[in-house]
């Protein structure tokens, strides 16, 4: 409470003093509440009484009713609707689709590209260039209608509140009067207020600041993309208004945008200076009622080719090629400076378009551009003037600097230059497995695969140089011996290199090497002196390898040696797939034939039998599909000729291949029988035991097909009853240790008696039908 009000209240009776205090509260408290509500935003009016004002507690009750009265009324010349409308910015308008201008279509027909206008993409996000309404006003900001001023006065008079400048630029302070602040700059606000207050009160301290800023209305006209009226923040400038309107249209100028005020041009803005250089020297603050005029576009040209800034550009008088390229940072590094093309419009009515070659040097860059020009920047050549390329199975495929008298050994100095980086990666991965226990167990079993894939075998006998024949303009291949060039430094193969040469190093995966030069890994295990994985020597055979590893062990059963080959496995698997497809086709054909021949009572009787046979055939075919070929090669050894002294001499001189596997088993003591037999257990081998004795011991089942029995011998060969020959007996053939006698089951389970009865019934029915037919014919003739 002011000091003079407290003095008057102490000198008067209680009732009168309460009345004085109540009158003061009616005048001051609502203004304080209005200030706090406006400063804290919507929803905080209830907290307005929190402003610290010295009011004696004895008079709060008397002043409570008066304090609830309305505060200072809104000035009649500045309505609430006007204030709200001015402070709300114009909503963002949807960007319109720009129809290509006639010049854009002209350039498109010439270059095949629809080029945009330079800087047009910046207008896709107008809010990015909007004025920040929350930013503090600059010191030169001029107060006007709608601006809010927050004032605090204490001393001889106390006041705290917010005042909004009315249409006349005035505010009204209690007990001080009306003050005109229109046209006052922010830096002079407190000084102006002190002068007015000092005319009424002395010993007063005053603080003033800006609250909410007013909105201003400007007009965008001319060739704007979205002309119209815009309500902007009072802090907005010409640049903000241009971006708010979406910028110039397809035919609007970006280089001579005018700001008009009171019929006069305040400034002319060149947006190219702002976009390319950040120059805002021609920008100006907006005032209410300003008009922004975007005139029609001036002369235009197009830039295309080897540049990242291909677009349609607006020209000013005297614009040179250098001035234009400076907007994008100068001459592009990937553009050729020796030649560029300018397509211009001449004066010849028959052929108005002309082409000119220029160099992007001093004279060419100084050439002035004209309306309608199309400047095409040509790319630089991709040729290397001093490079030799090394590629293929090498440590570092890259380009090397070419030097005079350079040779192959300068690019590939030693063997290490041919070791690819993948070798070290694969080697390091050996100890980076997730499941180390599993990899430790499989390390030995996968040694063939690991060694084979660790490094690609280099073709030391052949490498090639690719060289451009500049006379015939074709590529010549110059082969050389890599080993002699790198290791022996033979001048006949250590060829001189030319600039632009490409050296290619080949591996075994690129060109298949002769068998003797291939890296052949063979696994040998079982009853040999030193089982393991060996690299076969050139031309080495099976008996030679066994001899090299130390020969056979004492328990070796050479007749049962398992020799598997990867190439054979693949061929066997292909043959098995062919057999399966043929069996499926034959089964379908047989079922179709049987169905067509079943008529009358036989159709119903044989339907069940046919279904059973089809199910059995499908089961057998499914078993065949599940089989996988092992690639075993039968060595076809004669067991009677194998002795301890000449065992290896009975092995065939079979050359070894990569991936071969040899397993020499120990001497088994059993033979076995399988298939349609009663006893599938193994039987102890006895010298001189025959196939017939094994079948007799095992016993045949009812569905056994004894005529199709065969023996799967320990050496991988098969002996069948039909292959035994006319003069030899299958049953009297001696079995060897590890042999297996297999008796297949019958496919057609119909007995001979049933077949005979069914055939007689069919023939009886045929004769009966013939007799009836003959009688009918005779009756018709009579």
Question: How would you describe this protein?
Answer:
The protein is of the alpha+beta class and 782 residues long. Helix content is 30%, strand content 21%. The chain is built from 20 helices and 30 strands. Strands 7-6-10-8-9 form a 5-stranded mixed β-sheet. Strands 12-11-15-13-14 form a 5-stranded mixed β-sheet, with helices on one face. A hairpin with a 5-residue loop joins strand 16 (387-392) and strand 17 (398-401). The chain is elongated, with a radius of gyration of 53 Å. The protein starts with a helix and ends with a helix. Residues 7-86 have low confidence and may be disordered.
Walk across the major sheet and give the strand order. Answer: 7-6-10-8-9
Characterize the biggest β-sheet.
5 strands, mixed
User: What is the distance, rounded to the nearest whole angstrom, between the alpha carbons of the first and last residues?
Assistant: 150 Å
Fraction of residues in helices? 25-40%
Number of helices: 20
Estimated share of beta-strand residues = 15-25%
Mean pLDDT: 80
Low-confidence stretches: 7-86
> What general outline do the C-alpha atoms trace?
elongated
The class by helix and strand makeup works out as: alpha+beta
What is the CA-based Rg, rounded? Answer: 53 Å
Task: Kindly state the number of beta strands.
Answer: 30
Topology:
Blueprint: H1 3-11, H2 14-40, H3 60-67, H4 80-87, H5 102-111, E1 148-155, E2 159-164, E3 170-173, E4 177-180, H6 189-198, E5 204-210, E6 215-222, E7 228-233, H7 238-244, E8 257-261, E9 264-269, H8 271-277, E10 291-294, E11 300-305, E12 311-314, H9 321-326, E13 335-345, E14 353-358, H10 362-365, E15 374-379, E16 387-392, E17 398-401, H11 408-411, H12 421-428, H13 436-442, H14 447-454, E18 458-469, E19 474-480, H15 482-486, E20 502-507, E21 521-526, E22 532-535, H16 542-548, E23 562-564, H17 566-597, H18 601-626, E24 632-633, E25 661-664, E26 670-675, E27 682-684, H19 691-698, E28 710-712, E29 718-720, E30 740-743, H20 752-781
Parallel strand pairs: 6-10, 11-15, 16-20, 21-25, 26-30
Antiparallel strand pairs: 1-2, 1-5, 3-4, 6-7, 8-9, 8-10, 11-12, 13-14, 13-15, 16-17, 18-19, 18-20, 21-22, 23-24, 23-25, 26-27, 28-29, 28-30
Helix pairs in contact: 1-2, 2-3, 17-18
